Amino acid sequence: MSADPIYLDYAATTPLDPRVRAAMLACLESPPGNPAATHAAGRAARARVEAARAEVASLIAAPPAAIVFTSGATEADNLAILGAARGNAVRGRHLVSVRTEHRAVLDACGRLEREGFAVTLLTPDRQGLVDPGALRAALTPATTLVSVMLVNNETGVVQDVAALAAECRRRGALLHVDAAQAAGRIPIDVVALDVDLLSLSAHKIHGPVGIGALYVRREPRPTLVPLQFGGGQEGGLRSGTLAVHQIAGMGAAFRLAAAEGPPESARLEGLRDRLWRALEMLPGSHLNGHPVHRAPHILNVSFEGVDGEALLFALDDLALASGAACSAESGEPSYVLRALGRDDALAQASLRISLGRPTTVGEVDTAAARIRAAVERLRSLAPA
Amino acid sequence: MSADPIYLDYAATTPLDPRVRAAMLACLESPPGNPAATHAAGRAARARVEAARAEVASLIAAPPAAIVFTSGATEADNLAILGAARGNAVRGRHLVSVRTEHRAVLDACGRLEREGFAVTLLTPDRQGLVDPGALRAALTPATTLVSVMLVNNETGVVQDVAALAAECRRRGALLHVDAAQAAGRIPIDVVALDVDLLSLSAHKIHGPVGIGALYVRREPRPTLVPLQFGGGQEGGLRSGTLAVHQIAGMGAAFRLAAAEGPPESARLEGLRDRLWRALEMLPGSHLNGHPVHRAPHILNVSFEGVDGEALLFALDDLALASGAACSAESGEPSYVLRALGRDDALAQASLRISLGRPTTVGEVDTAAARIRAAVERLRSLAPA
Amino acid sequence: MSEHSPYSDAVARLFRETPGAGRPDGPGWANGEAREPLSATHVRWHLQATGGRVAASRYEVRGCPHTIAAAALIANQLAGRPLTDLGLDLPRVAALLGCPAAKFGRLFVIQDAIARAAHVLAAEEA
Amino acid sequence: MSEHSPYSDAVARLFRETPGAGRPDGPGWANGEAREPLSATHVRWHLQATGGRVAASRYEVRGCPHTIAAAALIANQLAGRPLTDLGLDLPRVAALLGCPAAKFGRLFVIQDAIARAAHVLAAEEA
Ligand SMILES: Cc1ncc(COP(=O)(O)O)c(C=O)c1O
Ligand SMILES: Cc1ncc(COP(=O)(O)O)c(C=O)c1O
């Protein structure tokens, strides 16, 4: 294995931008300040937190007071889903989500089923889009919450959230959107999208891992039961000493995304399309997801006639993800690709190639050549 | 206000040890690695996490597999208390805790009351100790969990956890211990203490804020309902992408605490006693907590005849905490000191002076002189 | 939330300097006391009068920084006012000091102590 | 968990080099196929025999790295063995390669393909 594989797994996590690191270091080198303390060091810490809150809010066109810092998008998803379902249980005990959601959403829904809630999971079409009509049909008077992601983490499919929000409004259901893969990649305007709750993560966009946020609409303000209690920080929604360096890092990452996101997304889109043009020349390669409604940084391709795990191993000089092993612990074929109607073999024989700020044309071209060579070699080994 | 007040609020949060910062920086400068990814960068991240897990475990004499990383002790307390209560609700719906616990524990108990659990809060004696006989009397067949802190964050009182554990064993109740203020200050041996769950925090011991851990006994393993779901990290108890730099920082902090803790604690104990000798010469000053069973880094003193908030303001060249304002948002007198039987006025007119690795004799002497001067001045202003 | 202290500059200065603080001796002084038990605020106000008007004013106070600053501010404004009309514009005092609403009650303690001192004086003069 | 790859060095080498892989041409070869649908593992094994014993062995394989490496390892060990006794010590193969237990089933696919090829050859020789 070469010492420095080409990193193409930016949808899993991204390297810190050096400017984000500098913002974090400034905190890590400061005198200690618990933002809850009354002395000057505490107040300085609080000012840093509030500056970052404004930067995060700004990227999604939200007021700063609508931002609740969490330990990541996993926690934000859980706070939104468990919190809204439990907080509105007197109104109804039905939720709607989608089969292609992130595990954080699906597993939170699974927990709610054990607490006596009913969950309807919609199946998207073969290109990954949820039909607003299907959502309408699933909504009942007991539906309190709908959870739909903005950008899918495996395929990059961009959902038409505004259209789905309209359905939720008609029925008075809250709408939660997981935007962990969307922030900094496509524009987000919580007002235009008309969402009630929206999850964010810093480490998908060159910020630190272990920090995220939940947008909670101000008016009308959804009722949420917190996941954790004590101290009453973040308006009581998320108690715990605020991690100032982490929050400052998220603020810096979101500020950079606001300033540089649009041209950078255009650049990544160009690289993504260049990569796809190179791979689609291989016979039996299939684009997973939607050809148009998709994020600029993710390309997901299935290859006929090869084993996904073998392909990934043959490509150990590329750091990327495969439908064969979305997590190190499971070798199941991707449930996301399965939900788009791919059979087990194609779902398993897929690569998710995801791009980020450091990605170059040269890296993309090298990756394309290596992938083609690996697919061809494995096919030559296989029974004809 | 002078630019650099003397920092004496180490029980609120501590500055990063430079060696901890170096360990974090090594991660922040590494190629990105999601520990869940299968490629080399992911595996390197995983190795860092496991090394830190062993370092944290070692300080409390636990096996590494018993450590679940969380976003701090607040989350660890909530995971322990909400998790164990919900996970054992079929066995019973009664909990026991103590009035002097941290808000994270008390507020988690409060949430459980809203979920239909009964909570008994014990009152410690005037020196802050919980009587094992009182615990015995409170335990019922429906008691599934007892939560008692090892070191109190306001008074430094060290509880006799082993004696309380024996009572829990007799009744088959789980024992959770909040050790956020204990780690690195006094020895902790989870086997000798015989506890089932134990909360830890990094930033109280010169590690980063925003990372902590819950020790979960292996055999017998308590049943816990997680707070958040998705991804299944940390044995399913705490899903979410692992924050490698944070975890590495916690590991480094705990390694340093293991190596340097005992002599450092002895040094702080000396400084604490020196400070108390200087303050006790003021008439009408009262030590809060236990004269013997207390941690080395916390001194809590009440002063007759002064207002706590005015005292704190008069001491704005010292960064410390007061019973007048445990949190920036509330001006209520400390509920902890109230539980020890102090009246409102004395509870409010208290200072918590807490020491850490950078504290010097000179700082302690300066602080003592300033506190005496401030108390004397405020008393001279007050009606005789 | 801001990086700034919860105390205004005016509070900081008056708290530091407490002009007019102390217990006077000498003849002609009367005093009045008031307390607010919840916050253990305690004010003893001293007045001297000539011709039915405040000649001098001193105070002893135990209380929070805002209360101490308010006492200093008020002490400076009483000279020359008729003993029969020592009502204070407490909203203005609060505004001048940036006193949080939760603490307004404490300012009445000052007013009460002054009123009692004035009452004693008026009785003596009568 | 460790910093190490989930694949042993032996798997890495055999996967990279796949000695003996490919579809032979020329006379005297027989082959057998087997599949495991869940993992889409597919093995076609080619054998050549002389005097009732394996003379040469080739394979085509679609499968995970462990399966490919196992095929390469086994292909190298068959020469000279009697067609009537080509049973494999699969636990030993698994141990040599550090093959995780969840994948043992895939090794049987190789064994089945070999058995079928041997069956065909035996029938032809008979
Ligand atoms: C769509 C989506 N939601 C949620 C998450 C979880 O985010 P975090 O790693 O911040 O917990 C991820 C990333 O793993 C993601 O891609
Ligand atoms: C005793 C105790 N428990 C819990 C906590 C919460 O820890 P954290 O800040 O890591 O959430 C603290 C500190 O605030 C504490 O002192």
Gist of the model:
The complex is a heterotetramer, with two copies of chain A (384 residues) and two copies of chain C (126 residues). With 384 residues, chain A is of the alpha/beta class.
CATH C-level of the largest domain in chain A: Alpha Beta
In order across it, which strands form the biggest sheet of chain C? 1-2-3
Give helix and strand order of chain C, one letter per element, not per position. HEEEHHH
CATH topology of the largest domain in chain A: Aspartate Aminotransferase, domain 2
Helix content of chain A: 40-55%
Low-confidence stretches of chain C: none
Mean pLDDT of chain C: 90
**What's the total number of strands of chain C?**
3
Using the coordinates shown, work out and report the CATH topology of chain C: Sufe protein. Chain: A
Return the domain count of chain C: 1
The biggest beta sheet of chain C is recorded as: 3 strands, antiparallel
Bound molecules: pyridoxal-5'-phosphate
Approximate strand percentage of chain A:
5-15%
Which chain pair shows the most residues in contact? A-B, 79 and 79 residues
- Summed over residues and divided by their number, the pLDDT of chain A gives a mean of 93
What Rg of chain C, in angstroms, do the CA atoms define?
14 Å
Instruction: Report the sheet-strand fraction of chain C.
Output: 15-25%
Give the topology.
The complex is a heterotetramer, with two copies of chain A (384 residues) and two copies of chain C (126 residues).
Chain A: E1 6-7, H1 18-28, H2 40-59, E2 67-70, H3 73-87, E3 94-98, H4 103-114, E4 118-122, H5 132-138, E5 143-147, H6 161-171, E6 174-178, H7 190-193, E7 197-201, E8 212-216, H8 244-280, E9 285-287, E10 298-303, H9 308-314, E11 318-319, E12 321-322, H10 335-339, H11 344-348, E13 350-354, H12 361-381
Parallel strand pairs in A: 1-11, 3-4, 3-5, 5-6, 6-7
Antiparallel strand pairs in A: 2-8, 7-8, 9-10, 10-13, 12-13
Helix pairs in contact in A: 1-8, 2-8, 3-4, 5-6, 8-12
Chain C: H1 9-17, E1 29-36, E2 41-50, E3 53-62, H2 65-75, H3 90-97, H4 104-125
Helix pairs in contact in C: 1-2
The structure holds pyridoxal-5'-phosphate (2 copies).
